[in-house]
User: What shape does this take?
Amino acid sequence: MSEMLDFPQLCAESKQLSGLTPQDEATLRELAALIVPALDAVTERFYSTLAAVPRTAAFIEGRVEMLKKTHRAWLESLFTRDLDAEYAQWMYQIGAVHVRVNLPVEFMTAGMSLVLRELLLLLGSSGSLDAEAKMRGGAAIGSVCGFSQLLMQKSYDSGKLAGELEKFLKITGMSRKLFDNLASAYKD
Amino acid sequence: MSEMLDFPQLCAESKQLSGLTPQDEATLRELAALIVPALDAVTERFYSTLAAVPRTAAFIEGRVEMLKKTHRAWLESLFTRDLDAEYAQWMYQIGAVHVRVNLPVEFMTAGMSLVLRELLLLLGSSGSLDAEAKMRGGAAIGSVCGFSQLLMQKSYDSGKLAGELEKFLKITGMSRKLFDNLASAYKD
Assistant: This one.
């Protein structure tokens, strides 16, 4: 699957669709010195919130320490690495891991919302940046979060599964209602 | 489907998962006077970007003027209406409209990223707010975008469709590979 995707093209399109400009990428690098030292706390708060909500807690139970390491490394990468086709592929693969554990797509959005909020608060509370730098930083942070999430959600291939099901129902002549009924009647 | 959801509960959980606090909701109301007069331009830029990318342009072609009206009204509601169970249900229904046109879920994320960026730039460029107010405003805007997107993406029911397909394959004894092959061989 993943080898069929054109990651350089997907990367370029995703930047356009999230508003991430070359200037934003430079801004993110400039923010690294301010932001990176505070990222441990961002990761901690992220997992505390997920642990406090029963439906998300179920996805992280027993794996929190391991997940924190990956999460913290990813957060830092937003401010330190090239946001290129290789990054796009990495995000796509992280998305695929979420798909494999059947994480509902809206929980990924929840997670990104929490990260974004914490990063904006960090930026806003800095005493060393002026209003102009904070404005540029906020836009860059907003877009890099959107860019990353878009790439991860690409793995959900939501259109593909729904489209495949539709074709399958046409092949078999089965109605969606019958399919739903069969699926809901089935017990393991 | 939608009548089976407990919207008050979904609303509360989604606020927790996007970090949206009662203080944020008050902040959003305070920002209305600043933000609302500039929203026409946000909607315009939103649709210009979607129109400039071929894969998103296909979803809006011929309907842009109608879509702009709904989009502009929704944007204003972020700053002016109660973000309650009724709002949660509205967002869920807007999500369902996106599902019906087979919009890939990551394009919804792209759209929200563009909106968020524009709102943060508007906030940051204000001459009348101090640094503290901008910081609180940025967090509130980040969370209300996440909150709304989470509710819309709930409609994708990504877990449900994948789970139903899995059960169906068990019922029929069909492999996923055969299913995929059948689906990809089918021509309308």
Summary: Chain A has a mean pLDDT of 92. The domain at 2-160 of chain A is CATH 1.10.490.10 (Globin-like). Chain A has one domain: 2-160. The two ends of chain A are 29 Å apart (CA to CA).
